[in-house]
């Protein structure tokens, strides 16, 4: 039974057989003799011991109970023996003497194990599950990590098909102890990292620029975003519903590349040590390469020291004045501990997700702004028509609007895209000219948006209304019906961003139509129905506001007891939209009826706009609060009766009045069958009580007249020669009695 001991080599505790430990000691001593006259001998020996400890720990990590003598021989062969170095040095000297211009390359030995090229095996020495991937990698002479990644991608992307292939190969392939892979290995590159270092590691493995690898990963996603945005703007797609993140992620190519990157990020180890970085670049890690690496580091360090010493004196003042802050930032960044493990991966994943989402939104907004500025697509037509034709008035408002669009909105988007591209391409500059340029342009955008808001606010400084009485004939039967016979106002174009019908508004190049119409019902002062149209608008002055209100187009007709309202008000291109509204006031005589047709709720969609004007500029001190906080419980297809107190009451089928359905004032309707809060009531009993009170007063006056007449008759015979008394005027009392 072989004796096993634990040794501490370069900070690693490793179990090793006694015979293998003796081989290690002999090898290290031979190296000390070989490098006895070498500059930096101790550093070279320490690096070699660290590499040996790393290889030995890798053997234990893969399942070995201890490092055996055979394992030690394999490690020594991979590192190179002193005899091989001496023979190589003699060959180099002879070659340099015969042909000094011929390049010379040194390769270490590959070990004494046989590579099985004629048959495929599973590797028992380097396995995670069954050794299938390492066996295939040995057969193809590639890094086992590459084969494992391919199986993982096939498994996750092919609904478990890779797992089925792995189990099948595990059953079929025989197992054997295969030679370990000693070529170029695949790592994540921490020195060329944007998110996880995957693209940098692949670039080092395939000897390609990292920007090319990043472009390969990002091109399908960017192309999918671009196609989706253009599809929504120009309606190229069959659905016409516009782009969405769901459509972006469901693309097969995009999803595969994102999944591949995530798997590479999880599976690939990071090249932390100098030897792993050498393996990542394809450099063989042996005694010669370690010696060369140490010598290069020493030479670089000495050169840096000399250069720093020469520059220190001349740059001390500049550093203190101008570079102190930058140096403090760099020191803080370099002193920050490098996070590792799952927490770091999650944090970087959130960072990548944020960059992706922000970049996608910025890119989509940039495309939208381009199409809005340069014209494109029917989808943005109503926005352009509403802003340009009916929102902006005059040269300066147009100038301020374009300044806001370009400098306030476009500049930050372009700045963010520029920052994102520079970050992806790892372009850094110590001169902040881009920041100052974008900052100055954005400040100009703030000025434009402030001036635009101020100009539009001046356009709505005064709010006026104009009155238009409607000529009607009194309805027969004492009932008026209110309906809307015109077609409902709805947008006639095509909007991909609007799933339902765009109701309540329509816009063309020359006109804007809104269903912003409200009704007000009150008691008439006489026995006649009366209808009045009130048009409202804002303006820079009272005269301008009244002129705009006069131009509001709204038609009302009356035929055979039916008041036919228009479905919406029209605004022409020259008037612009400045809060135009229409209020139809209906005055109903006491005791007469009013009925609302269901077309009122189907076609009119008034906006809830409250404007209360009570300041010094409002000479009339009129109130534009149309709701007046009194909402009306009303229904369509039923009759309402106007009471003497100006309140409506619902007429029930049995001829009585509903005590819980009375109101007066403004009748606002938001939904088709919505019912408002009930308020003060006017009932049939109240009307009867008032009639009875009038009749009682009339009866009392009649009795008083009778008493007066009787008294006059009794006094007549006593004064036959007296003149005839004056007659008491009775008729003037009748108006009071009535």
From the structure above, extract its key features:
5 domains, 7-stranded mixed β-sheet, 21 helices, elongated
Describe the structure.
The chain has 738 residues and is an alpha+beta fold. The protein folds into 5 domains: 4-96, no CATH class; 122-176, no CATH class; 198-298, no CATH class; 343-457, no CATH class; 467-686, no CATH class. It contains 21 helices and 21 strands. The protein has a 7-stranded mixed β-sheet with strand order 11-12-6-15-18-19-20. Strands 5-10-14-9-21 form a 5-stranded mixed β-sheet, covered by helices on one side. Strand 18 (639-642) and strand 19 (648-651) form a beta hairpin. Helix 6 packs across helix 11 (252-267), helix 8 (198-206) crosses helix 9 (210-234) and helix 16 packs antiparallel against helix 17 (433-459). The longest helix has 49 residues, at 287-335. The protein starts with a strand and ends with a helix. The relative contact order is 0.05.
Bin the strand percentage: 5-15%
Main sheet attributes: strand count, strand direction, barrel closure? 7 strands, mixed
Q: How would the global form be characterised? A: elongated
Give the structural class: alpha+beta
- List the uncertain runs: 100-114, 235-250, 333-341, 608-632, 664-683, 718-738
Number of separate helices: 21
Radius of gyration: 47 Å
| Overall mean pLDDT | 70
Membrane topology: Single-pass membrane protein
Pfam family, one: Toast-rack_PspC-Cterm
GO cellular component, one term: plasma membrane
Protein name: Phage shock protein C (PspC) family protein
